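Board notes (copied after class):
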Amino acid sequence: MALGLLPSRSAPLFTLSVRRRRRVLAAALLSDAVFPLAITGATAAVPEATDGLPGPAALGPWTVLAYNGLFAAALLLAGATADRTARTRFFAAGNLVVAATGLLSALAPGLPALVALRAVAGLGAAMCAAGGSSMVLAVHPPGERRRVYGYVGAVLGGGLALGPVVAQGLMAVGGWPLVFVVPGAVAALAALATLGLPGLRGGEPAEGFDRAGAVLFGLAVAAAVTAFGLGFGGAVPWWVPVCLLLAATACATALVRVERRVPAPVIPLDLLRIPAYRAYAVATGALMGMLVVGLTVFPRLVAGRVLGPGGAAVVLSLLTVPSTVLPLFAARLARRWARPLVTGALTVCAVTAAVLQVTDRPAALFAAAGTVGLCLGLTEGVPDGQALAHVPAERGGAGAALFGTARMSLETLTLSAAAGVTTTLGPAAGLAVAGTVCLTTALLLHRSTRPAGPGPVPRVPARSAGEAGGR
């Protein structure tokens, strides 16, 4: 399939039976279910693991930061590799890495070993995410992708809502080691689900791959994500995030020089030139930023009104539960109204954040949490499906990886900025930061996309015939 074909009319890269397509999707969804628990569970397990394992207590937060940093750093490289190899085998290998590191994390002799294992787990998670998207996009035509990403949104939303509860339950039953073993077991099931499926080997040639660019990009993203994750003014000395940001800048500068010289840059700039792809990638980052900021801000606002643990539980439920029940309905709405749906949700989130700058009454807090939760539930998976509908099947891994990198970067930046403002001006001001990002993104999305109509579908910028995959 040539890359210049219209994305909405192109066929999948591989033709499989309905049964096998469902198995591919089921394996990807099983793997997706691991991510929320891997992050929320590790966060919940940090205090207990820090107390129970020998090693410097300062290493405790790095069980999360190492995972997130390696995941972000390896995502684009994993996506490009998945498109050039047997997709299902690459996906299964990533899940086996997650499974092995989950088991070994439970047996870690100390905090340094646990942090190292979590870093390797982040690498495996990047292989899972990129390999899963690559194989799903390779067997599902663009017309089915909105529905597919409705299922993805439901799984991720459900995992996000239930992750903290499941993590606490696992810790109550078997302590912090169980928090790492259970996600690993689910990843092992995802790997087993690929047995008997074809390899779905990519059509892009292995030669000419921009390894230097991939490494520099990974180092830049890892350094930046870790720096913003550490933040400023906490227990970590100020010079640590500053040095990381300087390292990220140096890597980014070197990356620009490398990309100007190579014939096939690792960053798929042709995808970034598609306005809808670019705008929806920013949109999902803004929405996730609103979520992660809301998860920290709303409990603090409730605590300020002395509503007790029950009030905090209610606002968190209002914020997260809609993402477990609405994504499939959202996928139906997205068939005709994706643009107004996402733009409207971003705008409503911004307005809600503005309202909380002038009132903190309990009724307003509950209404705001419910409104933001509704917006998140109605858009869970929608930007993903809209953006990836423009990505040719043979480049699904790279397209999904770049999309995920943009989302994680904006989410991390939003959370970091909100945390800094919250420290100075209070939690409501932190929510205003996320609201401002949402409003800016809504304007960008409105200007960069067009309503679906009878007109021509935007083309993916053509590449050389040598880089186009075949069936």
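Comment from the instructor: The longest helix spans residues 142-174. The radius of gyration is 21 Å.
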